[in-house]
Amino acid sequence: MLSKNVIIGQSGGPTAVINASLAGVYTAARSAGVAHIYGMKNGIEGLLAGRILDLGAVLDSEETVNLLRHTPSSFLGSCRYRLPELETGEDTYRRLFAQLETLGIDAFFYIGGNDSMDTIHKLYQYGRRIGSPIRFVGVPKSIDNDLPGTDHTPGYGSAAKFIATVTKEVICDATVYDTKNLTVLEIMGRDAGWLTGASALAKGEDCDGPDLICLPEVPFDLEDFLARVEQKQKTKKALVVAVSEGIRTAAGGYVCELAGSEKRKDVFGHRMLSGTAQFLAAVAGERLGCKSRGIELNTPQRCAAHLLSAVDEQEAFEVGKGAFAIAQAGRTGEMATLLRRSDEPYVCSVSAVPVVSVANGEQCVPKEYIAPDGYGVNERFLAYARPLIQGEVACLFQNGLPRTLKRR
Ligand code: F6P
Prior knowledge:
Blueprint: E1 5-10, H1 18-31, E2 36-40, H2 43-48, E3 52-54, H3 55-58, H4 62-69, H5 90-102, E4 105-112, H6 114-130, E5 135-140, H7 156-174, E6 181-187, H8 194-197, E7 212-214, H9 222-233, E8 238-244, H10 255-258, H11 276-288, E9 291-296, H12 300-303, H13 310-328, E10 334-342, E11 347-354, H14 379-385, E12 397-398, E13 401-402
Parallel strand pairs: 1-2, 1-4, 4-5, 5-10, 6-8, 6-9, 7-8
Antiparallel strand pairs: 2-3, 10-11, 12-13
The structure holds 6-O-phosphono-beta-D-fructofuranose.
């Protein structure tokens, strides 16, 4: 049983529902009677610098907690900070554990993706080494949906719903002229194509869906791509294609690098990706002699809280509560997960895995979900993704705009 205080942090790229998970841990901790619920400002980096928020003082009413649930981006602020290896960075761990001791922390929760689970794993290992009783529990989040060990990650469903919606709307717009044109949509997700594949959800009785989908799991061949666009334009003038920001050639280079975009990396060694749509639209426009436009969906994919998936928002809240239950049960070094029991009806529950099996791992779209020609996803992918975008959340509006909780 937890008797004293807990601390929660958020890390990595935000999502539209990462705060629902924060609300989940917070709500569970409050009803368990935890004395103080602290938040780290800007994740572990803020904790190292002693930047702490007393969440109880901020989330002082049910209305505020509700507003938090519907506020996009990381309320506590985020960081991309890699903890040193235990062997070489003992001083960092000593400082961190001293902070936790000063605050009287029983349990530490970190809401993040695969890199953030590396943080949880290292803290758990160091804690064990020094015999610390603090429990370290991970709460999954990622629009990229690339975490191993969980059926899907909170954040994916809402981003997928936004992407499929925008794809549908862009298709309506892009097909108004009776002239040849190509629209290229660039979608986030790094080296995993879950988000790009979600553009296929746009297809239905009122929409043809994207004409081509390029996933990072399939090597990209520029000449083949142009030939397919040209071929399709013989029977359909206006085309919309969805490409992942992370598509790479068979030689391994990112397509956005062909555009000469700067090769910058973050501390985890991830290449910062951007410019693929602009590049492909420009090349296709020139080579095929048609009007073309590149649209990078960019950050709205992960912060469009006016279009949350109700399933996603509820699950984000539940994994937060589930993570607290893990610590409450005396367990540590684990990450809460979502375990799908069936697609139709969609049934999913919260479970857990050792965080070591998630840290730094990556779960890409499996071959079985990809169309035989490599330019799309199949029914299995759609059956997997469709339940995750279901339901709408009525967000609170003020002066014609969605209300959000202002970051402190
Ligand atoms: O990992 C989530 C993600 O949104 C990726 O899809 C994207 O490539 C990356 O973060 C962008 O990160 P940042 O906002 O730190 O540049």
